[in-house]
Amino acid sequence: MRHLRRGGALAAALGLILAATAPAPAASADNPSRYRNPISTAVGDTFADPVIVRGDDGFWYAYGTTDPLREGEHEFHRVPTARSADLVDWTYVGDAFDPDQRPPYAAPGAAFWAPDVRRLGDRWVMYMTVTDTTVSTEGSDYAIGSATAPTPTGPWTFADQPVVAPRPGGGGGYLWTIDPSQFTDVDGRSYLYYGSYYGGISLTELSPDGLTAVGAPTQVAVDNKFEGSYVLRHDGWYYLFASTANCCAGPATGYSVQVGRARSPRGPFTDREGVALTASRAGGTPVLTQNGNRWIGTGHNGFLTDLSGQDWIVYHAIDRADPYLDEPFGINERPMLLDRLDWIDGWPTVNAGAGPSEGNRPAPVTTGRIDDRFDTAGLAGWRRVAGDWQVTDGRLAGSGALTSRTTVGGDVRTEADLRLTGATSAGITLGDRTEVRVDAAGGRLVARDGDRRATAPLPAGLDLADRHNLAIEVRGRHLVAELSPARLGDQLAVVSLRLDRPVAGRPGPAATGGPAEFDNVSVARLYEPVRRAVPEPLVGAPLRAYSDEFGDGLDGDWQWVREDPAATVAGGALRWPVQAADLTGTGNTAGVLLRDAPRGDYVVETKVTLDLGEETVRNYQQAGLVAYVDDDRFARLTQVAIWNTRQVEYGYELPFAGQPVYGGSIVGAPATTTWLRLAHHVDPATGEHEFRAGSSRDGRTWTWGAVWTFPADTTPRIGLVAHGGAEPPVTAEFDYLRFYR
């Protein structure tokens, strides 16, 4: 998404993550290289809203939003495209669209944001935001467009009509019909997810060709919190990834990724605590957020799986030391990053919860012990078992069976792209006993190990003459195989089989009843999953000398900035009517109640009750904790009303280029009574103060979010705030302020 605002200002938001180093599996012997973020450096200084697909030629292709690529360039690239053999070193290969190329419904000068590229049938389809259409002369009449191509690099041809046309909004203007993402389910139905803060995220079913919306849309995530959706299927669950907060607030950008899951692609999607993403007090489990290192604003993700089976998340971020493409202000500089996506206790998290990486890391596995793209005519690596086989136009075609001259065993992942061009059955054999086949005659995906057999139905009407990816993972004596359009987490069929014994032998392609085509056949050592998350901040012994239980008035350690006489202490609580004031920008009219913090690492906590109700619009009443240096440098953790939603926002303001800049991130879902924590850590290398935010709905289960930093030469104090608007009147009640070592 580009820099969008609604009705003056959309409040910023919050997220997750540790500055600790995540446990990392050893690099595979199949691909022992390393990499460092950002991966798009050779392509451009910025490459926002990225997605990656693997092409028919075995190369990986990345697509970004319309922006200049380099500082000082000032030329807008209309969906810049890059290619890589290893997901690490990328080469710019051109733009998807010429400067004068646009669909008939697009206004002159329209840009194309947030592309999503998929294989549908025998062609590639790109969905994108068309920023300006001929529906209105007022602008912001966004639509979802589409284009098709025979290859990932085009040539791309726009469809004449939008997939989703501009939608008038009930509050005026047009709903933000942006950030498309396509998904194909196991029943063969195809869906499109799209939307943003004004209107929320919706789902619509697509026609079989993927170019037309079918039926009425369904809202799957609340407005005023989410955008940039991406859905994938994992272990029978459907996971809706969505970005939250402002994408583009320069050095105060707190964009992050959260997730909910469901048993249907239509939802309802709920987070780890069972809170719906459509609720007014909106749910969302953090997947990716800034951790205090170089990267902030980590969001708008895509997804991919390497040849070892390890999942990865591709996204953009902002270097907090270089936030704009042409300083100061203007276009935010958002290069493309790639990090490991782990699944722990059924939930995705980046680098086991450690967040975006900055230093050298084990690279994705993009080659294997067997890795044949059939770029040459010979079959030197293969032995004919039966039938007739030949390599033509970069593909292996034939019937019968081949076996590799390489013996493999142990835990492995095998892949092949295949088309059944006459065969009644085709697939991969793994030694003498084990095979996985696509059975066209029976309409099933079949796994067999000796006398053991398991099957799963293929979608009705699936055209097996189109290219599909078959992936097989064997771990110990457990085999899982899936058939998918393009390896992007949208399986058409999944089958699981308990093996009689571990696999060992010479794998190879096989086809019966006629010919089949194979390409990109690989066998790589299976990845080692990370099963434990990095530790969350520890809460140790209480520091009673720094704490206040509000038992008998304010103690003498409190200091006011702009004292509010309406704040009173009685009955073991501080009661503070929410002020018609704020701290953001240059106004600085709100009161701040502060006390000195202990030296070194600590955790500070408060319990705040603020009855903001639900569903109704209340902007932007809030109350909670603050880490405060002065009126232009603070981090504010509050439960807050943002239009019809109630969120836990971790706002941040700092001085930049002569003026204050405000942004923020989102943590967990609030309740009427919400527990809030800030975990303070001093970076031993830089001396920076790092504050990580946490929230809880019950005081026991915590969601940890983003890290905001303060310079080493500052001395942040800790305090409380209650401001954002006095109408309708509401009073914040703080039970205590407690410090822990």
From TrEMBL:
CDD domains: GH43_ABN-like
Keywords (A to Z) from UniProt: Glycosidase, Hydrolase, Signal
GO molecular function: hydrolase activity, hydrolyzing O-glycosyl compounds
Pathway in which this enzyme or protein is active: Glycan metabolism; L-arabinan degradation
Segment forming the signal sequence: 1-26
Family: Belongs to the glycosyl hydrolase 43 family.
Stated name of the protein: Glycoside hydrolase family 43
Coiled-coil intervals: none
Highest taxon above the source species: Bacteria
Residue numbers annotated as active site: 49 (proton acceptor), 227 (proton donor)
Entry's Gene Ontology BP terms: carbohydrate metabolic process
InterPro entries per the UniProt record, alphabetical: ConA-like_dom_sf, GH43_arabinanases, Glyco_hydro_43, Glyco_hydro_beta-prop_sf
Site residues by UniProt (Important for catalytic activity, responsible for pKa modulation of the active site Glu and correct orientation of both the proton donor and substrate): 179
Gene3D superfamilies assigned to the protein according to its UniProt record, in alphabetical order: 2.60.120.200, Exo-inulinase, domain 1, Glycosyl hydrolase domain, family 43
